[in-house]
UniProtKB/TrEMBL annotation:
Assigned protein family: Belongs to the class-I pyridine nucleotide-disulfide oxidoreductase family.
GO molecular function: flavin adenine dinucleotide binding; NAD(P)H dehydrogenase (quinone) activity
InterPro entries xref list: FAD/NAD-bd_sf, FAD/NAD-binding_dom, FAD/NAD-linked_Rdtase_dimer_sf, Pyr_nuc-diS_OxRdtase, Pyr_nucl-diS_OxRdtase_dimer
Sequence positions that bind FAD: K51, G115, D303
Residues holding NAD(+): G177, G178, G179, A180, V181, G182, V183, E184, E200, G264
Organism: Streptomyces longispororuber
Cystine bridges: C42-C47
Cofactor: FAD
Record-annotated membrane-spanning stretches: none
UniProt keyword list: FAD, Flavoprotein, NAD, Nucleotide-binding
Cofactor note (record): Binds 1 FAD per subunit.
The FAD/NAD(P)-binding domain, residue ranges: 6-318
Protein name: Pyridine nucleotide-disulfide oxidoreductase
Length: 452
């Protein structure tokens, strides 16, 4: 079967769904291609269900911090009712159908299946071929990266998807990877009284963030009973039908009921046949210009571009791609103030460059680090007030190029810092702002005064 369309969107995750729906609403003939659920990873297996699980775990932790509720007999929780079964298959399919209906109600068409490029402006889905007059948008996201550890592929390991769908709490869990997904889920399972061990090959968890952030996350995990092993990797994995055995580089042997692989994500460009459009199928991601163009008549948005596996980045890029396809004016992509949050307790929000990244770029850097507990709000908050604000200033220009806000509301405090980095607000101007009392973000004002 052959048909034509103005635009074909390959992948209907958050960014792809936005592109397809907005272009259809603008009157273009759009075909969206999706092999799984419309909406993608975020609402079904990642951002949304994980934050629901985190919320449940945080409630338990907060209750345990309260002296009148701290007894184990009082603070109990049923995983199946609170932490587990957050994802319901019937609900997922209802949401999928609703999302598909939104696209078709705007005049778009949906093709179910795995699409591949078949040359410039051409997509195939099985024996179905669509010719795109304006072009194709790649928005197929990424898949969990499974490290080539001997024995691992032959075991019933979990990825984030299986962890989200778990209806029973395992007695024990090994997590391979100490990035955002690994530490978030490790803390959740531990707070429901699962014995958790995190294995991270770098010297710190959250190794891409500031060292202070990694140290804080590790301390928070250990406070919840998590065993955190850094600077070591899995060398061999086995499963005897009941439990997993993991042998590490240092010859330690770990044993647990379940194994979660959280070693990052990657794009499979070869599966998309990108070489037919002039791209490198062995590349780790699709390079794009400031208008999200990857080639003539080809755009890419979301995780596949390598700019961070964040829904907010996908949506940001989707808006730019839509403007370019419709010929509308607007700024090009700007990633210097890219924000991200790790939703552990405490939350760790960051924007822009780390201190190390700034120095590697040759900037003359001034920094400050202030503990959240030094603020009045931190003192009022009491137990659970661990956190800090770290600022990274380009001393020659007098503007912030990076910041980290960690604490009970680290992700929310980040907003003001995000504006400061993005808009390049002079540090002298930030120092003379009025910071609301008593709030966590008041620590930012003190940190500005402490820049050295």
């Amino acid at each position: 079967m052959r048909e034509q369309a103005a635009v074909v969107v390959l992948g209907l995750g958050p960014g792809g769904e936005y592109v397809a729906g907005t272009l259809a609403e603008a009157g273009l003939d759009v075909v969206g291609v999706e092999a799984e659920l419309v909406g993608g990873e975020c609402p079904y297996w990642a951002c949304v269900p994980s934050k629901m699980m985190i919320r449940a775990g945080n409630l338990l932790a907060e209750a345990r911090r309260t002296p009148s509720l701290a007894g184990e007999a009082t603070v109990t929780a049923d995983w199946a009712k609170v932490g587990g079964r957050i994802r319901d298959e019937a609900t997922d399919h209802w949401n999928d159908r609703a999302a598909a209906h939104r696209l078709t109600s705007k005049g778009g068409r949906l093709v179910r299946g795995r699409g591949r490029l078949a040359g410039p402006r051409r997509v195939t889905v099985g024996d179905h071929t669509v010719e795109a007059r304006r072009g194709v948008v790649l928005a197929t996201g990424t898949r969990p990266r499974i490290p080539p550890v001997p024995g691992l592929a032959d075991t019933p390991y979990w990825t984030n998807r299986e962890a989200m769908a778990a209806e029973e709490l395992p007695a024990s869990l090994i997590v391979l990877g100490g990035g955002a997904v690994g530490v978030e889920l490790a803390q959740v399972f531990a707070r429901f009284r699962c014995a958790v061990t995190v294995v991270e090959g770098q010297e710190r968890v959250l190794s891409r963030e500031e060292p202070e952030a990694g140290d804080l996350a590790a301390a928070a995990l250990r406070a919840d009973g998590v065993r955190v092993l850094t600077g070591t990797r899995a060398r061999q994995v086995g499963h005897d039908g009941t439990a997993f055995t993991v042998r590490l580089d240092d010859d330690q042997v770990l044993r647990a009921e379940r194994l979660l692989v959280a070693a990052g994500r990657g794009a499979d460009l070869a599966a998309l046949a990108v070489e037919t459009a002039g791209l490198d199928p062995t590349a780790p991601h699709v390079p794009t210009d400031g208008r999200m163009r990857a080639a003539d008549g080809l755009w890419a948005v979301g995780d596949i571009t390598g700019r961070g596996a964040y829904t907010h980045v996908s949506m940001y890029q989707a808006e730019i791609a839509v403007r370019d396809i419709l010929g509308q004016p607007g700024p090009e992509a700007d990633y210097r103030a890219l924000p991200r949050v790790t939703f552990t307790d405490p939350e760790i929000g960051a924007v822009g460059l780390t201190e190390r990244q700034a120095r590697e770029r040759g900037l003359r850097v001034r920094t400050s680090v202030l503990p959240l507990a030094s603020s009045t709000r931190g003192w009022i908050h009491g137990p659970g007030n661990e956190g800090f604000v770290k600022l990274v200033e380009d001393a020659d220009r007098g503007v912030l190029v990076g910041a980290t806000s960690a604490g009970p509301a680290g992700g929310e405090v980040l907003y003001g810092l995000n504006v400061a980095v993005h808009a390049e607000v002079p540090v002298d101007r930030l120092r003379h702002m009025i910071y609301t009392y008593p709030t966590f973000h008041r620590t930012v004002g003190a940190a500005l005064g402490a820049l050295r």
